[in-house]
Amino acid sequence: MGQLTRFFAVIMFFPLLAACEDEQASGPTADEITTAVIERFRDDPYAKVGHVENVTKTNSIAEEDNEVTVMVRYELVFDRTVEDFADDVTEKGKAAGSMDDVGSTVRDALDLVKTKMLTLKEGAYKVGDRRMIEDEIRLLKSENGWIYRGRS
Predict the structure, then answer these.
(1) Among 15, 32, 83, 150, which is most buried by a count of CB atoms within 10 Å?
(2) How far apart are CA 152 and CA 149, in angstroms?
(3) Cα 18–Cα 20–Cα 22 angle in degrees, nearest 5
């Protein structure tokens, strides 16, 4: 009789394991997290002088059924100098003909100021330098998977 009870206990345990596995698998995938980090980076002043590589999820917190805060670590790789960016903004400003061009140039000029301020605060860099960044992003579950919805 004891073996039969153990057999049924084991059989009853497997659905619980499967449910735990499904719960873990229901979170954002590595690709969805990388896409979210890149999307968030587009708003970063450094986006005009660098790009993101080697995104790694370090932790996550489920806020609600369809929302999760993900802690990430990634490398910021510098592609060009602040001076190159400043030259581009200057040339763009000289060539601006329409109001849309002027608006775009003003946005770039503001990003240039932010980038220069960050460089003063965090230190100068050379093209090819890498900085390790740790950040948090918020993702929401949509019909088409997990999507970026701002910082935590």
Answers:
(1) 32
(2) 9
(3) 70
Instruction: Take residue 111 and report the two structure tokens written for it.
Output: 């990003």
The structural domains of the chain, with segments of one domain joined by +, span 28-80+127-152, 82-125
How many CB atoms within 10 Å of residue 109? 15
Tell me how far apart the alpha carbons of residues 58 and 40 are, in angstroms, rounded to a whole number.
Answer: 17
Select 28-80+127-152's CATH number: 3.40.50.720, 3.30.70.260, 3.10.450.50, 3.40.50.1820.
3.10.450.50
Q: Does the reported pTM lie above 0.85?
A: no
Residues of the chain with pLDDT under 70: 1-25, 99, 101, 151-152
Residue located via tokens 């960050």: 118
CA 91, 96, 102: angle at the middle one, nearest 5?
110
Rounded Cα–Cα distance for residues 151 and 86 (Å): 28
